[in-house]
Amino acid sequence: MAPHLVQPGWRFWRQAACTLGASVQHRTWAGTPRIPRPGSLWGATTTSPRICRSGSSTSARAPEVTLTRERYPVRRLPFSVVSREDLEAFERVVPGRVITDPEVLEASNVDWLRTVRGSSAVLLRPRTSEEVAHILRYCHERNLAVNPQGGNTGMVGGSVPVFDEIILSTALMNQVISFHDLSGTLVCQAGCVLEELSRHVEERGFIMPLDLGAKGSCHIGGNVATNAGGLRFLRYGSLHGTVLGLEVVLADGTVLNCLSAPRKDNTGYDLKQLFIGSEGTLGVITAVSILCPPKPRAVNVAFLESPFYVLIETSGSRAGHDAEKLNDFLEQVLRSGLVTDGTVATDHMKVKALWALRERISEALSRDGYVYKYDLSLPTERLYDLVTDLRVRLGPQAKHVVGYGHLGELRQGDGNLHLNVTSEAFSPSVLDALEPYVYEWTAGQRGSVSAEHGLGFRKRGVISYSKPPEALRLMRQLKALLDPKGILNPYKTLPAQA
């Protein structure tokens, strides 16, 4: 079982839910009274799921995002500026796919959270690794900085330019190369959308080993580049274990093809691991080989309350056996008073409806103003303490301090807290109250300042709270070896040097 939690009473939960919870049939467990509260999710009576698909946070009425270079103390490195000759050279490599229209570029210059904004004037859309290699070879020779970009769903400003870096989009690199029906090995280009890959493998009796709230937009290459965790982490592990091979284009245009590696390959250094979680700073991932587990025959989702909302999913091969074990567990926690209310879903659409409650929290938060987001790993027993601590520390400076995340089993807990603080607008005083306090608090618990979202631009300066100087020095050496001119996703992951 993989529980996920959020505190009851949080109004965004209901905003994100719309009437989703109403579509799920309720079950009363033997010997346990169930008393719906007026206005609660349990009290609604509609009969079909209705997922809120409201507009994104980049609506026409949204205020313009401040340029990153104006909001943060960052200095442009001495890269070349794109010239007319450069544009002509790119047009020869990717004809018709050199974008300079400012209106088109606007969306690619701003992150999904609308907290950072670059000023790139060029967007390139290659279709093949060969085209990526030509582009990077040229940029390396000309000392032009490049910002690789997938679905642009990142949370730490790693997917958009800081200054005028060339945006290299993988959106057109969206082909499934092969799928092995016996082993479950999927090989695909980096621009494949996670949700589309999920449909592709589910039709063949398998599932993707990761599932994210952003699955309808995020690219598998970006998932690997950030080592995305997601909702199936406890069951199937991280991408460091499920990715079998990668094709990566290095900064000088060299194509490193390690896609064909079998599951057992003990020949030298495991080079793919360098690029999983490197956030496009060591190379551009162009194709992925990933191991997909068999699709479970039985899935149960329980949505419980006590004193948090807890979402538990079980998956297995025998529906009756799984349901019996889950019911035994639920009866026990209800009798003990640990859980006060809840519902169970087994129907596919109702399962999706319940998970949508959890997956839409981030979007709901974006409607409350400016969001300060922190993605932390903490000991399970201290997972929520930081939330209550910050509510006292910030007081009226913050509109809301919200914590949700991934709990897992206590013995091998996920311990991933998504800490969110909202205010009417960006406030330096709120930021000063949060940082470095949040990172010091996390380091004091021997946690990690980034559990699954990476470091990107916004967290690059706090890596030392989780990594010793020796590790940081080795990371710099690897960066210098693979990208000696520093053109790949500059200003990201590693802290600035004096």
Structural commentary:
43% of the residues are buried. With 498 residues, the protein is of the alpha+beta class. About 10% of the residues have low confidence. The strands form three sheets. A seven-stranded antiparallel beta sheet has the order 13-11-12-1-15-16-14, with helices on both faces. The chain has a five-stranded antiparallel beta sheet with strand order 6-7-10-8-9. It has a four-stranded mixed beta sheet with strand order 2-3-5-4. Helix content is 29%, strand content 17%. A hairpin with a 3-residue loop joins strand 11 and strand 12. The chain contains 17 helices and 16 strands.
Report how far apart the termini are. 47 Å
What is the overall silhouette? globular
Ranges where pLDDT stays below 50 over 5 or more residues in a row are 9-60
Mean pLDDT: 86
Largest sheet: 7 strands, antiparallel
Compute the number of helices. 17
| DSSP strand content | 15-25%
* DSSP E strands, number: 16
What percent of the residues sit in helical stretches (DSSP H or I)? 25-40%
Query: What is the rounded Rg?
Result: 23 Å
Strand order of the largest sheet: 13-11-12-1-15-16-14
- Structural class assignment: alpha+beta
Describe the structure concisely.
29% of the residues lie in helices and 17% in strands.
SSE layout and pairing:
Blueprint (H helix, E strand, L loop, with lengths): L3 E3 L4 H7 L50 H4 L12 H10 L4 E2 L2 H8 L13 E2 L4 H14 L3 E4 L16 E4 L6 E4 L5 E5 L4 H9 L17 H7 L6 H4 L2 H4 E7 L5 E4 L13 H4 L8 E8 L6 E8 L3 E8 L2 H18 L4 E5 L2 H12 L1 H5 L4 E8 L7 H10 L5 E7 L9 E8 L4 H7 L2 H8 L24 H14 L16
